[in-house]
Amino acid sequence: MISGIEIALKKELKDARGLGLQKKADSYFGIKIQDARCIDIVTIESDLDRPQLEMIKGEILTNPVTQISSLKPLDIQFDWCIWIGFRPGVKDNAGATALEAIQDHLGKTFGADDGIYTSKRYCLTAKGLKREDVEKLASALLSNSIIQQFKVFHIDQWDKLTGANVKPAKVILDHTPTCEVISIGSNAGLADISDQRNLALNILDIPVIREYFLDSKVLESRAEVGLKEPTDLELEYISQARSDHCNHNSFQGTFRYKDADTKKEVLEKNLFKTYIKEPTLKLKEQKEWVVSVLWDNAGVGRFDEKNNYVVTGETHNSPSNMEAYGGAITGIVGVYRDPMGTGLGSKLFMGSFGYCVGDINYDGPLQPPLHPRRLLDGVIEGVKDGGNKSGVPTTFGQTLFDKNYMGKSLVFVTALGIMPNQVKGKPSHKKTTSPGDLIIMSGGRVGKDGIHGVTASSESYSENTPAGHVQIGDPYTQKKMHDFLLICRDEDLMPFITDNGGGGLSSSIGESAMLSNGCVVWLDKVPLKYEGLDMWEIWISESQERMTIAVRPEDLDRFMELSAEHEVESTVIGEYTNTGKLHIKYKDETCAYVDMDLLEKGFPSWEFDAIWVSPETRGLTEPVISSPSDYNKLLLKILERPNIASKEWIIRQYDHEVQGGSVIKPLIGVKHNIPSDASVTRPVIESQKGLAFSQSLLPWYSKIDAYHMMTCTIDEAVRRLIAVGGNFDHIGGLDNFCWPNIQFDPKNNPDGKFKAAQLVRACRALKEGCEKYEIPLLSGKDSMYVDGHLQGEFGERVKMSAMETIQFSATSVIDDVSKCLTMEPKVSGDLVYVIGTTANELGASEYYDLFDKTGLNVPHVDFDKFKNIYKILQETIESELLASCHAVARGGLGVHLSYMTMAGGLGLDIDLSKLPTDTNRGTLLDETMLYSESAGRFIVTIAPENRPRFEKLLNSISSACIGTITDKHDHLKIAGHYKNTLVDLSINNIEKAFNKTFGDMI
Amino acid sequence: MRKVNALILTGFGLNCDNETAHVFELAGAKAHKIHINTLISGKVKLKDFQILVFGGGFSWGDDHGAGVIQALKLKDHIGKELLSFVDQGNLVIGICNGFQALVNLGLLPGLDNDYTKRSVAITYNDCGNFRDQWVHLTANKKSPCVFTKDIDIADFPIRHGEGKFIADKKIIDTLISQNLIVFQYADKSGTPAKGSFPLNPNGSIDDIAGICDPTGRVFGLMPHPEAYNHFTNHPDWTRNTQILKRAGKSFDQVTIGVKLFKNGVDYIKNSV
Asked: What is this model's ipTM?
């Protein structure tokens, strides 16, 4: 029986969802709606009687104070009605919680054919609206055809009895699960199969795969279990394991790097090994605080005598470009599983975000899958629901706009956890599987979700990319699992735990079974969302919120008891062995029987040609722009620019205080509206110790040279940490690469060789920076295909590649958080210093971008010099000589003095003629001093009485007092080279500009 | 003096249990984090506690109304025990999601000694979105609430998408006349916000941020006092400490958040 319940807010109450639609319809499309009301619909498929339905409606689904509801369609007036529901198989979180609540309330267990589905309809009062306009709202604002369906009703078509006539969004596959044997007669034949089945096997891997399965010994051993040629499941397993996503083939590839100017050629054999692994392992030897790196789901560093912290980062670009909300929530909830599956499991204590999107006001002819504006809305909301509902504070985040990201927008998510360094006397960062341990899958169930997600994100989009890999994360289920697992950890019930992410069980079991050297898996035991999945689909499904756990048989009862108490589903699905074989069964049938060391069988590394052409040879020069005459107007204009303007509206949607450890928040200043340099939290709430965290994104510099992009990005992240009180002796790094395709193809990727060279150069810079600043890379991630093919107005498709981008994250441990600093000037009469030198470095700056210029003089980082500055600055902070400290970043002194004056709500008198400068790269004009983005600089303020001690400490580095803080006026006053007034603006006017672009958004 | 045991509910998406337990320990209680199912199963009994805490979080993902399913589950399984817990003179505090659960249970406002009636609601913010923001609160000195004794004003963060307090005029009038409105959103000086955003962050009627029952022993509020457990939680601490330092003073390290919980703990300690 199918029943429907409709719920709406009482007429006199404001309907936020309706109002949101009205506002967006107007601002996105100029469509005017007089009134919009949203009705929630719960569709129940189960045999329930009328009193039961009334009880569900009244007790669970209706708030008597605010809502009205009915078992029939609610009679709410409209001209047009839009119904939106999920497509079958899409995760319906509200449907799942309704099911849980109803079962508990009625004391009834729903059967396999029963289900609860949620949908909604909007009742629009809009005179004269045309059907096509309503359909536009439905398709371009309210739903995404990848996960949702809609129906549009005009009032004349509306049947008051049947209403939207909602059918359960139930998956019916009507398919008998099979395991197919694949014929691998020839290389060409296997290549064809790879194409047909979307296996994305690399052409170089095919002969190796064939050789293995045709080997007489292998054949002999397989015959014992009734197998000959490979099964589809076995090929899927290899495909997952060999994908660029899992295996990092690009970073492990061979690069023939050639400098086009000098003709010099270098063979780079393995970027990961040379530039990431080796320097990090060397630093691990030197830095006793480094606990575990390079093998687990996340890196581990020491927090205090009893606790270690865990850090990792992810991108979730491809899915977010197709379905922004689903992609982003899956991304954040997914990255939160990594710390849960690091060592014996850690407790999450913070997360961060980084968004790189196209121009949100783009109105040109190209059609990305989602318009940048809609994409950003969805991504913000996805991380909001995923982060907030996980109970993890989002303490830091940055949003970047650039037209090049319209081809592929980037969604970075980062997660940090904390764990006791010992579990029952054993180090918590170590874990292993042993023969005899049971394999348990905990959390969500398995459906067709995300199949081939890994291989899809390892390719750029073609017209044939299946959209089925988009999912919706479920933070509620995961939070229950998180709490449950921490108890299991403390009781030492789990010798091994890892998460199910890309590649699903194929990766998590495949990799964990390497430790015991074998496993047998019973796929028929895996709990499914619906029947009819083929064996290979169960094996590689990426259904979310699942962990793979090893449990000793003697601990199984206790584990299951806790699992039941926390209402987390856990199932024994196999056993670790030491047979040397990955043995997968479905009932009595063997679906896979391969050697555990199959993946080490001499698969060839990928090869790339990399050709570097210097910026000068590419024809880049400094632009010819004469000095402006109206510096006030110029500064206000720059403050309005999307990359500089306030993004408070995004940050406020994220809970950045939960867990009670907030020390330096993402927004600071008298009005709590200025982005802070870094965040500081106390992950151990009883302790005075803090974890400082910062991130940096400076992709624009890649337009000139990705080498300097990398050095500047690392330097900025470190500088931000130092500014809040970070400890230079303890800096952990996290490199998150997003790179366009680097494989040269004369037709499809003609500049692939240059992009490959940019990657090599970025890696070299990474090593240099990490060695000089002594930063072990605790974790890292690469997304190698940030390109898109956008539909144009003449039926053409235009390839658009994102800039070569790195998000660099840095962590530090602060012994006493009471010494932390924020940037705002605090006391009138205090002195303002600039530390570090300003050079003629406007290349790829915000200033040049204002004039649509790139230039040549990209900022350079002098690691040795800056290191000295940072150490001295740290000393001044530890000696409590500073009242405030701020790292100068994008937009230079002009922008950052503006941030400071707003943050303090106090006037500033600044004299740039005193600014320490470096003229090696050219003379500095007033605009250069204001907008140069030279690295390694801070603005600090001190009490006048601290001047002698402060200047004494600083005597070996470039610094100068350039002004004072005042409450005599509320202006930012900046004088130039000849003491000429450049800027004289009230804080009020500065704030207006800063809030002009996004200030209306909440 | 009595020993004070506080039970902090956990599980099903609740997420402030750790810091809430910490702040109760700072306030002198013994804090116990107990999973809702452990309480329901009877493994742990309410009668062994004097303070019951419905903490913040997203119980059941906030689906179908924040706090609704949590309230229903507790009512279905331990409804009677809850009523007698209140009846026996113990304390109940609900914070954010917990406040939402209390009003859906009917434990608040508990007018006319009816602790089962849903007569007020906490619904979607007028601003249309989830919001994290520190707010200024003014406390009603005439309120019977035991948690806000000697507290005039307080700054705490709000972190919610559904925090707008609404009720019929009659109910609101009763809340006012019986001094059951404990906290109102205000400006820095303690003058009520009169609905102005963002001082009143959600559009609550009469700037209501927290209410209590007529006994003053059941208290619910949207802002998070447990998130002000350390002086460095306050958004202005770096500036305030610097200014005080110049005046030769140091910052009060006992926060108003801890004080609020201590009031509750002391009430039990001193009660017979």
From this structure: 0.97
